[in-house]
Amino acid sequence: MKKLITKEILQKLIANDELSQIGMNRLDMVPVLRLFTPDAAATWVLVSGEEVEGDVILYGCCDLGLGFQEFGNVSLRELQTVRGKLGLPVERDLYFRPTGTLHQMSEDAEAANAIGL
Q1: What three-state secondary structure class fits 35?
Q2: Which of 34, 48, 96, 112 is the right S-S partner for 16, CB 3.0 to 4.6 Å?
Q3: For residue 1, what pLDDT is reported?
Q4: Residue 109 to residue 21: CA distance in whole angstroms
Q5: CA pair distance 84, 15, nearest whole angstrom
Q6: Distance between CA 50 and CA 5 in Å, rounded?
Q7: Could you write out the DSSP letters of every residue in 51-62?
Q8: More reliable by pLDDT, 110 or 8
């Protein structure tokens, strides 16, 4: 199975988690990565992560393709088990370039009535 998160990405996620613990609002952070289901409409745009008991708990904004977004935590281990309609696993968007903070990107997607971020 292809890794969803490289060591470099994990380091950035952990650094952002440390910033959130000293008071920086995660909504004001620039996202580090975007994950998606290639055969469904689910998207995760993530800003921070914390290693917990052999897993990584990620924080960001998720749109499961139902037309609304939700901010919160998701387990990397759990994401690695998700499959879309055709059985394809979650993938990392290799071409993702954030266009602002997590909050700004969420608002832009909502204003455009976009499904996914």
Answers
A1: strand
A2: 48
A3: 40
A4: 27
A5: 31
A6: 13
A7: EETTEEEEEEEE
A8: 8
CB 93 within 8 A of CB 69: no
In tens, the pLDDT along 76-99 reads: 999 999 998 999 999 999 999 999
- As given in the structure block, the two tokens for residue 109 are 């997607």
pLDDT-derived band of residue 70, with 50, 70 and 90 as boundaries?
Answer: very high
* Pairing between β-strand 55-63 and β-strand 70-75 as defined by DSSP bridges: antiparallel
Cβ atoms 76, 90 nearer than 8 A: no
Q: How far apart are CA 13 and CA 4, in angstroms?
A: 13
Mean pLDDT of the residues in the chain = 91
Contact 35, 4 (CB under 8 A): yes
Give the C-alpha separation, 104 to 37, whole Å.
22
Output DSSP code: residue 83. B
Question: Does residue 110 or residue 88 have the better pLDDT?
Answer: 88
* Terminal C-alpha separation, the chain: 25
Q: Domain limits of the chain?
A: 7-111
